[in-house]
Amino acid sequence: MAIRFTHIHLSGGTQHQHITHLWWVNPGTGATGDNTRAALVAWIEQGNAAFVGTGADRVQVGVVDPPSGPKYLRTYADRQWTNNLLALPRK
Question: Do the Cβ atoms of 21 and 9 come closer than 8 Å?
Answer without folding.
Answer: yes
